[in-house]
Fold this protein.
Amino acid sequence: MKDAHMNTVFKKSDPGREGVWPAKAEKSASELLPQGLLRQKPAGLPSLSELDVVRHFTQLSRRNYGVDGNFYPLGSCTMKYNPKFTENVAALPGFTRLHPVLPQLKGAGRLCQGALEVMYETEQLLCEICGMKAFTLHPMAGAHGELTGTMIIAAYHKDKGNKKTKIICPDSAHGTNPASAAIAGFEVVNLPSKDGIVDPDELAKVLDDSVAGMMMTCPNTLGLFEKNLPRIVEMLRSVDALLYYDGANLNAIMGKMRVGDAGFDVVHLNLHKTFATPHGGGGPGSGPVGVSERLVPYLPVSRVEKLEDGQFYLNYAFPKSIGYVAPFYGNFGVVLKAYAYILRLGGKGLTRATENAVLAANYLRKRLDKVLDVPFDRICMHEFVASACNLSGCHVRALDIAKMLLDKGYHAPTIYFPLIVKEALMFEPTETESLDTLDQFADDLIALLAEAKANPELAHNAPTTLPVTRLDETRAARNMELTDDL
Ligand SMILES: *Cc1c(COP(=O)(O)O)cnc(C)c1O
Protein backbone atom coordinates (compact mmCIF):
# COMPACT_ATOMS: atom_id res chain seq x y z
CA MET A 1 0.00 0.00 0.00
CA LYS A 2 1.46 3.35 -1.01
CA ASP A 3 1.21 6.17 1.42
CA ALA A 4 3.32 9.29 1.03
CA HIS A 5 3.25 9.85 4.80
CA MET A 6 5.09 6.59 5.32
CA ASN A 7 8.21 7.57 3.39
CA THR A 8 11.34 7.61 5.48
CA VAL A 9 12.75 10.93 6.52
CA PHE A 10 15.59 10.31 4.05
CA LYS A 11 13.23 9.94 1.12
CA LYS A 12 11.60 13.20 2.10
CA SER A 13 14.96 14.97 2.05
CA ASP A 14 15.19 17.93 -0.33
CA PRO A 15 18.85 18.81 -0.78
CA GLY A 16 19.51 22.39 0.22
CA ARG A 17 16.44 22.72 2.42
CA GLU A 18 17.30 23.69 6.01
CA GLY A 19 15.63 24.10 9.35
CA VAL A 20 17.42 27.16 10.63
CA TRP A 21 19.95 29.64 9.32
CA PRO A 22 22.45 30.15 12.09
CA ALA A 23 23.86 33.67 12.41
CA LYS A 24 27.05 34.00 10.41
CA ALA A 25 30.03 33.34 12.66
CA GLU A 26 33.28 35.17 12.21
CA LYS A 27 35.08 31.91 11.77
CA SER A 28 33.60 28.69 10.46
CA ALA A 29 33.69 25.55 12.58
CA SER A 30 36.32 24.01 10.30
CA GLU A 31 38.63 26.92 11.08
CA LEU A 32 38.05 26.68 14.83
CA LEU A 33 38.25 22.93 15.38
CA PRO A 34 41.44 20.87 15.31
CA GLN A 35 41.82 19.35 11.84
CA GLY A 36 41.92 15.79 13.20
CA LEU A 37 38.38 16.15 14.57
CA LEU A 38 36.81 17.33 11.34
CA ARG A 39 34.46 15.05 9.46
CA GLN A 40 35.93 13.85 6.18
CA LYS A 41 32.60 13.26 4.43
CA PRO A 42 29.16 14.86 4.96
CA ALA A 43 27.17 13.15 7.75
CA GLY A 44 24.48 11.99 5.35
CA LEU A 45 21.65 13.71 7.22
CA PRO A 46 18.44 14.50 5.38
CA SER A 47 17.74 18.11 4.43
CA LEU A 48 14.40 19.18 5.78
CA SER A 49 12.74 22.16 7.39
CA GLU A 50 11.77 22.03 11.05
CA LEU A 51 8.13 21.75 10.06
CA ASP A 52 8.89 18.80 7.75
CA VAL A 53 10.56 17.00 10.65
CA VAL A 54 7.77 17.76 13.13
CA ARG A 55 5.12 16.52 10.66
CA HIS A 56 7.11 13.42 9.81
CA PHE A 57 7.39 12.25 13.39
CA THR A 58 3.88 13.32 14.35
CA GLN A 59 2.47 11.30 11.46
CA LEU A 60 4.57 8.29 12.41
CA SER A 61 3.40 8.53 16.01
CA ARG A 62 -0.19 8.32 14.78
CA ARG A 63 0.61 4.91 13.32
CA ASN A 64 1.17 3.65 16.85
CA TYR A 65 -1.66 2.00 18.65
CA GLY A 66 -1.73 2.81 22.33
CA VAL A 67 -4.09 2.72 25.25
CA ASP A 68 -4.20 6.54 25.23
CA GLY A 69 -5.86 6.24 21.80
CA ASN A 70 -8.39 3.47 22.15
CA PHE A 71 -9.53 0.33 23.97
CA TYR A 72 -6.87 -2.37 24.29
CA PRO A 73 -8.34 -5.57 25.79
CA LEU A 74 -5.13 -7.64 25.45
CA GLY A 75 -5.60 -10.39 28.02
CA SER A 76 -2.88 -10.96 30.63
CA CYS A 77 -1.14 -7.71 29.67
CA THR A 78 -3.24 -5.21 31.66
CA MET A 79 -3.21 -2.47 29.06
CA LYS A 80 -4.90 0.10 31.25
CA TYR A 81 -4.73 3.84 31.36
CA ASN A 82 -1.85 5.01 33.51
CA PRO A 83 -2.42 8.41 35.06
CA LYS A 84 -0.05 11.06 33.79
CA PHE A 85 0.85 12.50 37.19
CA THR A 86 3.09 9.48 37.75
CA GLU A 87 5.08 10.43 34.64
CA ASN A 88 5.57 13.90 36.09
CA VAL A 89 6.88 12.43 39.34
CA ALA A 90 9.31 10.14 37.49
CA ALA A 91 10.52 13.09 35.40
CA LEU A 92 11.45 15.30 38.36
CA PRO A 93 15.03 16.46 37.78
CA GLY A 94 15.99 15.55 41.35
CA PHE A 95 15.47 11.93 40.28
CA THR A 96 16.41 11.91 36.60
CA ARG A 97 19.73 13.67 37.17
CA LEU A 98 20.98 11.22 39.78
CA HIS A 99 24.07 9.24 38.98
CA PRO A 100 23.86 5.59 40.12
CA VAL A 101 27.13 5.72 42.08
CA LEU A 102 26.58 8.92 44.00
CA PRO A 103 27.78 8.86 47.61
CA GLN A 104 25.00 7.71 49.91
CA LEU A 105 25.65 8.75 53.46
CA LYS A 106 25.92 12.08 55.22
CA GLY A 107 29.68 12.20 55.61
CA ALA A 108 30.19 11.37 51.98
CA GLY A 109 27.87 13.99 50.58
CA ARG A 110 24.42 12.55 51.15
CA LEU A 111 23.35 13.13 47.57
CA CYS A 112 20.80 10.37 47.03
CA GLN A 113 18.99 9.94 50.34
CA GLY A 114 15.66 10.82 48.70
CA ALA A 115 16.00 8.14 46.04
CA LEU A 116 17.02 5.55 48.65
CA GLU A 117 14.05 6.53 50.79
CA VAL A 118 11.72 6.03 47.81
CA MET A 119 13.13 2.54 47.25
CA TYR A 120 12.89 1.72 50.95
CA GLU A 121 9.31 2.95 51.23
CA THR A 122 8.21 1.25 48.01
CA GLU A 123 9.52 -2.04 49.38
CA GLN A 124 7.61 -1.44 52.64
CA LEU A 125 4.40 -0.62 50.75
CA LEU A 126 4.69 -3.74 48.60
CA CYS A 127 5.31 -5.81 51.75
CA GLU A 128 2.12 -4.41 53.21
CA ILE A 129 0.08 -5.00 50.05
CA CYS A 130 1.32 -8.60 49.70
CA GLY A 131 1.91 -9.64 53.33
CA MET A 132 5.56 -10.49 52.65
CA LYS A 133 8.60 -9.94 54.87
CA ALA A 134 10.88 -8.22 52.35
CA PHE A 135 11.02 -7.15 48.70
CA THR A 136 13.74 -6.57 46.15
CA LEU A 137 13.09 -4.04 43.39
CA HIS A 138 15.92 -5.23 41.14
CA PRO A 139 14.26 -7.56 38.60
CA MET A 140 13.52 -5.75 35.34
CA ALA A 141 10.44 -7.71 34.19
CA GLY A 142 7.92 -10.29 35.31
CA ALA A 143 9.88 -13.20 33.87
CA HIS A 144 13.06 -11.79 35.40
CA GLY A 145 11.28 -11.74 38.76
CA GLU A 146 10.34 -15.39 38.25
CA LEU A 147 13.95 -16.30 37.54
CA THR A 148 15.07 -14.38 40.64
CA GLY A 149 12.39 -16.13 42.74
CA THR A 150 13.24 -19.62 41.49
CA MET A 151 16.95 -18.94 42.09
CA ILE A 152 16.03 -17.97 45.66
CA ILE A 153 14.13 -21.26 46.02
CA ALA A 154 17.19 -23.14 44.75
CA ALA A 155 19.47 -21.25 47.17
CA TYR A 156 17.17 -22.05 50.11
CA HIS A 157 17.17 -25.79 49.44
CA LYS A 158 20.90 -25.87 48.78
CA ASP A 159 21.56 -24.07 52.05
CA LYS A 160 19.41 -26.56 53.94
CA GLY A 161 21.08 -29.50 52.24
CA ASN A 162 17.80 -30.56 50.59
CA LYS A 163 18.14 -32.64 47.44
CA LYS A 164 15.35 -31.20 45.37
CA THR A 165 15.23 -31.10 41.62
CA LYS A 166 11.67 -30.38 40.48
CA ILE A 167 9.27 -27.49 40.22
CA ILE A 168 5.60 -28.07 39.52
CA CYS A 169 3.85 -25.75 37.05
CA PRO A 170 0.12 -26.19 36.39
CA ASP A 171 -0.92 -26.06 32.73
CA SER A 172 -2.98 -22.99 33.59
CA ALA A 173 0.15 -21.09 34.69
CA HIS A 174 1.66 -18.33 32.61
CA GLY A 175 4.03 -19.63 29.94
CA THR A 176 7.02 -17.84 31.44
CA ASN A 177 6.76 -19.89 34.67
CA PRO A 178 8.08 -23.22 33.35
CA ALA A 179 10.70 -21.38 31.30
CA SER A 180 12.00 -19.53 34.37
CA ALA A 181 12.09 -22.70 36.49
CA ALA A 182 14.03 -24.51 33.74
CA ILE A 183 16.57 -21.68 33.43
CA ALA A 184 17.06 -21.79 37.21
CA GLY A 185 18.08 -25.44 36.77
CA PHE A 186 14.91 -27.27 37.77
CA GLU A 187 13.12 -30.09 36.07
CA VAL A 188 9.61 -28.82 35.28
CA VAL A 189 6.65 -31.06 36.13
CA ASN A 190 3.49 -30.19 34.23
CA LEU A 191 0.29 -30.44 36.27
CA PRO A 192 -2.96 -30.76 34.32
CA SER A 193 -5.74 -28.54 35.65
CA LYS A 194 -9.25 -29.80 36.30
CA ASP A 195 -12.27 -27.66 35.53
CA GLY A 196 -9.88 -24.76 34.96
CA ILE A 197 -8.03 -24.87 38.28
CA VAL A 198 -5.45 -26.93 40.19
CA ASP A 199 -6.90 -30.09 41.63
CA PRO A 200 -5.35 -31.39 44.91
CA ASP A 201 -5.85 -35.02 43.84
CA GLU A 202 -3.86 -34.42 40.64
CA LEU A 203 -1.23 -32.59 42.68
CA ALA A 204 -0.90 -35.58 45.03
CA LYS A 205 0.11 -37.74 42.05
CA VAL A 206 3.21 -35.66 41.27
CA LEU A 207 4.17 -34.49 44.75
CA ASP A 208 7.14 -36.12 46.47
CA ASP A 209 10.32 -35.20 48.34
CA SER A 210 12.14 -34.21 45.16
CA VAL A 211 9.77 -31.25 44.64
CA ALA A 212 11.47 -27.93 45.45
CA GLY A 213 8.39 -25.83 44.90
CA MET A 214 5.34 -25.01 42.86
CA MET A 215 4.64 -21.92 40.77
CA MET A 216 1.04 -20.79 40.74
CA THR A 217 -0.40 -18.05 38.62
CA CYS A 218 -3.35 -16.70 40.54
CA PRO A 219 -5.76 -15.81 39.11
CA ASN A 220 -4.57 -18.31 36.54
CA THR A 221 -4.42 -17.70 32.80
CA LEU A 222 -8.12 -18.52 32.51
CA GLY A 223 -8.83 -15.59 34.82
CA LEU A 224 -9.99 -18.03 37.50
CA PHE A 225 -9.16 -17.89 41.17
CA GLU A 226 -7.41 -20.98 42.51
CA LYS A 227 -9.93 -21.79 45.20
CA ASN A 228 -8.07 -24.87 46.46
CA LEU A 229 -5.16 -22.73 47.66
CA PRO A 230 -5.33 -23.63 51.39
CA ARG A 231 -5.18 -27.35 50.65
CA ILE A 232 -2.39 -26.88 48.08
CA VAL A 233 -0.30 -24.84 50.54
CA GLU A 234 -0.68 -27.52 53.18
CA MET A 235 0.32 -30.29 50.76
CA LEU A 236 3.48 -28.48 49.63
CA ARG A 237 4.48 -27.61 53.17
CA SER A 238 4.30 -31.31 54.05
CA VAL A 239 7.30 -32.04 51.76
CA ASP A 240 9.18 -28.77 52.52
CA ALA A 241 8.41 -27.43 49.04
CA LEU A 242 8.08 -23.68 48.59
CA LEU A 243 5.15 -21.85 47.04
CA TYR A 244 5.69 -19.30 44.32
CA TYR A 245 2.92 -16.86 43.45
CA ASP A 246 2.93 -15.27 40.02
CA GLY A 247 1.39 -11.93 40.97
CA ALA A 248 1.86 -10.22 37.60
CA ASN A 249 -1.84 -9.48 37.58
CA LEU A 250 -2.19 -8.15 41.09
CA ASN A 251 -5.05 -5.88 40.03
CA ALA A 252 -7.19 -9.00 40.42
CA ILE A 253 -6.56 -9.41 44.15
CA MET A 254 -4.87 -6.41 45.77
CA GLY A 255 -6.74 -5.18 48.80
CA LYS A 256 -8.72 -8.43 48.88
CA MET A 257 -6.13 -11.06 49.64
CA ARG A 258 -2.51 -11.00 50.78
CA VAL A 259 -0.25 -13.55 49.16
CA GLY A 260 1.87 -13.98 52.32
CA ASP A 261 -1.18 -14.54 54.50
CA ALA A 262 -2.25 -17.31 52.13
CA GLY A 263 1.02 -19.14 52.86
CA PHE A 264 3.17 -18.23 49.85
CA ASP A 265 6.94 -17.91 50.17
CA VAL A 266 7.79 -15.98 47.01
CA VAL A 267 5.82 -13.57 44.82
CA HIS A 268 6.67 -11.37 41.89
CA LEU A 269 4.64 -8.39 40.78
CA ASN A 270 4.62 -6.59 37.46
CA LEU A 271 4.81 -2.88 38.26
CA HIS A 272 4.45 -2.46 34.49
CA LYS A 273 0.95 -3.87 34.62
CA THR A 274 -0.75 -3.11 37.88
CA PHE A 275 1.23 -0.10 39.10
CA ALA A 276 1.10 2.68 36.53
CA THR A 277 3.62 1.82 33.83
CA PRO A 278 2.29 0.60 30.50
CA HIS A 279 3.09 -2.98 29.62
CA GLY A 280 4.51 -4.08 26.31
CA GLY A 281 6.72 -2.62 23.66
CA GLY A 282 9.79 -4.22 25.21
CA GLY A 283 10.02 -2.25 28.42
CA PRO A 284 11.10 -0.70 30.62
CA GLY A 285 9.54 -2.97 33.20
CA SER A 286 9.94 -3.86 36.82
CA GLY A 287 9.21 -7.20 38.47
CA PRO A 288 9.86 -6.83 42.22
CA VAL A 289 10.10 -10.06 44.20
CA GLY A 290 8.74 -10.45 47.72
CA VAL A 291 9.69 -13.25 50.09
CA SER A 292 8.61 -14.73 53.41
CA GLU A 293 10.89 -14.50 56.42
CA ARG A 294 12.77 -17.74 55.80
CA LEU A 295 13.90 -16.59 52.35
CA VAL A 296 15.12 -13.09 53.27
CA PRO A 297 18.83 -14.13 53.50
CA TYR A 298 18.85 -15.21 49.84
CA LEU A 299 17.51 -11.99 48.29
CA PRO A 300 19.72 -10.33 45.68
CA VAL A 301 22.11 -7.54 46.67
CA SER A 302 22.15 -4.66 47.19
CA ARG A 303 19.41 -4.14 49.77
CA VAL A 304 18.35 -0.74 50.95
CA GLU A 305 18.35 -0.35 54.73
CA LYS A 306 17.57 2.34 57.27
CA LEU A 307 20.05 3.32 59.97
CA GLU A 308 18.98 4.34 63.47
CA ASP A 309 19.58 8.02 62.67
CA GLY A 310 17.06 7.78 59.83
CA GLN A 311 19.59 7.68 56.97
CA PHE A 312 19.29 5.11 54.19
CA TYR A 313 22.12 3.11 52.63
CA LEU A 314 22.74 0.13 50.39
CA ASN A 315 23.89 -3.00 52.17
CA TYR A 316 25.84 -5.63 50.22
CA ALA A 317 26.80 -7.82 53.18
CA PHE A 318 24.50 -10.81 52.75
CA PRO A 319 26.66 -13.94 52.45
CA LYS A 320 23.77 -16.21 51.45
CA SER A 321 22.43 -13.83 48.79
CA ILE A 322 21.99 -15.13 45.24
CA GLY A 323 24.05 -12.07 44.22
CA TYR A 324 23.31 -9.52 41.55
CA VAL A 325 20.37 -9.95 39.19
CA ALA A 326 20.57 -6.49 37.60
CA PRO A 327 23.00 -3.63 37.26
CA PHE A 328 22.52 -1.10 40.04
CA TYR A 329 18.99 -1.08 41.48
CA GLY A 330 16.48 -2.09 38.78
CA ASN A 331 14.38 0.29 36.73
CA PHE A 332 14.14 3.15 39.16
CA GLY A 333 11.82 5.28 36.97
CA VAL A 334 9.21 2.51 36.96
CA VAL A 335 9.55 2.15 40.74
CA LEU A 336 8.98 5.90 41.15
CA LYS A 337 5.74 5.72 39.19
CA ALA A 338 4.54 2.78 41.27
CA TYR A 339 5.39 4.65 44.48
CA ALA A 340 3.47 7.74 43.38
CA TYR A 341 0.53 5.62 42.22
CA ILE A 342 0.29 3.63 45.47
CA LEU A 343 0.48 6.78 47.61
CA ARG A 344 -2.11 8.61 45.52
CA LEU A 345 -4.61 5.74 45.52
CA GLY A 346 -4.02 4.54 49.08
CA GLY A 347 -5.35 1.23 50.35
CA LYS A 348 -8.95 2.11 49.50
CA GLY A 349 -8.07 3.21 45.98
CA LEU A 350 -6.07 0.07 45.25
CA THR A 351 -8.92 -2.11 46.51
CA ARG A 352 -11.31 -0.16 44.32
CA ALA A 353 -9.04 -0.71 41.31
CA THR A 354 -9.28 -4.48 41.93
CA GLU A 355 -13.05 -4.34 42.29
CA ASN A 356 -13.42 -2.39 39.08
CA ALA A 357 -11.08 -4.68 37.13
CA VAL A 358 -13.05 -7.74 38.21
CA LEU A 359 -16.41 -6.06 37.62
CA ALA A 360 -15.43 -4.92 34.12
CA ALA A 361 -14.23 -8.41 33.15
CA ASN A 362 -17.41 -10.05 34.42
CA TYR A 363 -19.59 -7.47 32.68
CA LEU A 364 -17.87 -8.06 29.36
CA ARG A 365 -18.01 -11.83 29.87
CA LYS A 366 -21.76 -11.70 30.41
CA ARG A 367 -22.26 -9.45 27.38
CA LEU A 368 -20.26 -11.79 25.13
CA ASP A 369 -21.13 -15.26 26.37
CA LYS A 370 -24.21 -15.31 24.16
CA VAL A 371 -22.16 -14.91 21.00
CA LEU A 372 -18.91 -16.70 21.88
CA ASP A 373 -18.25 -19.93 23.79
CA VAL A 374 -16.90 -19.24 27.26
CA PRO A 375 -15.60 -22.67 28.34
CA PHE A 376 -15.41 -21.83 32.05
CA ASP A 377 -18.42 -19.60 32.28
CA ARG A 378 -18.42 -18.63 35.93
CA ILE A 379 -17.37 -15.59 37.92
CA CYS A 380 -13.94 -14.62 36.67
CA MET A 381 -11.32 -12.29 38.09
CA HIS A 382 -9.65 -9.58 35.99
CA GLU A 383 -9.96 -11.40 32.66
CA PHE A 384 -11.76 -14.24 30.93
CA VAL A 385 -11.11 -16.60 28.07
CA ALA A 386 -13.65 -17.16 25.31
CA SER A 387 -13.36 -19.55 22.40
CA ALA A 388 -14.17 -19.07 18.73
CA CYS A 389 -14.93 -22.79 18.34
CA ASN A 390 -18.64 -22.10 17.98
CA LEU A 391 -17.82 -20.21 14.77
CA SER A 392 -15.82 -23.04 13.23
CA GLY A 393 -18.97 -24.27 11.45
CA CYS A 394 -18.81 -21.12 9.36
CA HIS A 395 -15.00 -21.37 9.05
CA VAL A 396 -14.26 -18.30 11.11
CA ARG A 397 -11.36 -18.52 13.56
CA ALA A 398 -10.09 -16.53 16.54
CA LEU A 399 -7.43 -15.04 14.25
CA ASP A 400 -10.11 -13.71 11.88
CA ILE A 401 -12.00 -12.05 14.71
CA ALA A 402 -8.80 -10.47 16.01
CA LYS A 403 -8.01 -9.07 12.57
CA MET A 404 -11.56 -7.76 12.07
CA LEU A 405 -11.30 -5.90 15.37
CA LEU A 406 -8.25 -4.06 14.04
CA ASP A 407 -10.37 -2.65 11.22
CA LYS A 408 -12.84 -1.38 13.79
CA GLY A 409 -10.05 0.56 15.51
CA TYR A 410 -9.55 -1.78 18.49
CA HIS A 411 -6.51 -3.64 19.62
CA ALA A 412 -7.15 -7.37 19.41
CA PRO A 413 -7.52 -9.50 22.53
CA THR A 414 -4.81 -12.08 23.24
CA ILE A 415 -5.43 -15.06 20.95
CA TYR A 416 -4.43 -18.75 21.09
CA PHE A 417 -3.39 -18.38 24.73
CA PRO A 418 -3.78 -20.12 27.12
CA LEU A 419 -3.10 -23.29 25.17
CA ILE A 420 -5.67 -25.28 27.13
CA VAL A 421 -8.56 -23.51 25.34
CA LYS A 422 -9.00 -24.08 21.61
CA GLU A 423 -9.31 -20.95 19.47
CA ALA A 424 -8.83 -18.87 22.60
CA LEU A 425 -9.67 -15.20 22.81
CA MET A 426 -8.56 -13.72 26.10
CA PHE A 427 -10.17 -10.42 27.10
CA GLU A 428 -8.90 -8.15 29.85
CA PRO A 429 -10.84 -4.90 29.94
CA THR A 430 -8.98 -3.50 33.02
CA GLU A 431 -10.28 -1.21 35.74
CA THR A 432 -9.91 2.04 33.86
CA GLU A 433 -12.49 1.55 31.10
CA SER A 434 -15.92 3.12 31.40
CA LEU A 435 -19.21 1.29 31.01
CA ASP A 436 -19.72 3.23 27.75
CA THR A 437 -16.49 1.89 26.28
CA LEU A 438 -17.28 -1.67 27.35
CA ASP A 439 -20.76 -1.45 25.82
CA GLN A 440 -19.48 0.08 22.61
CA PHE A 441 -16.88 -2.66 22.31
CA ALA A 442 -19.41 -5.42 23.01
CA ASP A 443 -21.84 -3.91 20.46
CA ASP A 444 -19.11 -3.66 17.83
CA LEU A 445 -17.85 -7.18 18.47
CA ILE A 446 -21.37 -8.66 18.35
CA ALA A 447 -22.03 -6.84 15.03
CA LEU A 448 -18.70 -7.99 13.66
CA LEU A 449 -19.38 -11.63 14.58
CA ALA A 450 -22.69 -11.47 12.73
CA GLU A 451 -20.89 -10.03 9.69
CA ALA A 452 -18.26 -12.76 9.87
CA LYS A 453 -20.87 -15.49 10.05
CA ALA A 454 -22.79 -14.07 7.11
CA ASN A 455 -19.69 -13.48 5.03
CA PRO A 456 -16.63 -15.51 6.14
CA GLU A 457 -14.64 -14.22 3.18
CA LEU A 458 -14.81 -10.75 4.71
CA ALA A 459 -13.37 -12.15 7.93
CA HIS A 460 -10.55 -13.97 6.14
CA ASN A 461 -9.45 -10.80 4.35
CA ALA A 462 -9.37 -8.50 7.36
CA PRO A 463 -7.71 -6.16 8.07
CA THR A 464 -8.25 -4.02 5.01
CA THR A 465 -7.76 -0.54 6.44
CA LEU A 466 -4.25 -0.84 7.88
CA PRO A 467 -0.88 -0.30 6.16
CA VAL A 468 -0.35 -4.07 6.13
CA THR A 469 -3.19 -6.43 5.23
CA ARG A 470 -3.46 -10.15 6.06
CA LEU A 471 -0.07 -11.79 5.92
CA ASP A 472 0.88 -15.39 5.55
CA GLU A 473 2.15 -15.44 9.13
CA THR A 474 4.54 -18.36 8.76
CA ARG A 475 6.12 -16.92 5.65
CA ALA A 476 6.24 -13.46 7.21
CA ALA A 477 8.22 -14.85 10.16
CA ARG A 478 10.55 -17.13 8.18
CA ASN A 479 11.01 -15.11 5.06
CA MET A 480 10.97 -11.53 6.12
CA GLU A 481 10.72 -8.82 3.52
CA LEU A 482 11.98 -5.65 5.07
CA THR A 483 11.06 -2.51 3.26
CA ASP A 484 10.57 1.15 4.01
CA ASP A 485 8.35 1.38 0.98
CA LEU A 486 4.98 0.84 2.62
C1 LIG B 1 2.87 -10.64 31.92
C2 LIG B 1 2.97 -11.82 32.76
C3 LIG B 1 4.22 -12.39 33.05
C4 LIG B 1 5.52 -11.95 32.42
O1 LIG B 1 5.86 -10.63 32.62
P1 LIG B 1 6.94 -9.91 31.67
O2 LIG B 1 7.20 -8.60 32.31
O3 LIG B 1 6.31 -9.80 30.32
O4 LIG B 1 8.17 -10.78 31.65
C5 LIG B 1 4.23 -13.46 33.93
N1 LIG B 1 3.10 -13.96 34.46
C6 LIG B 1 1.90 -13.44 34.17
C7 LIG B 1 0.67 -14.03 34.81
C8 LIG B 1 1.78 -12.36 33.32
O5 LIG B 1 0.56 -11.86 33.03
Summary: Residues 443 and 485 are 36 Å apart (CA to CA).
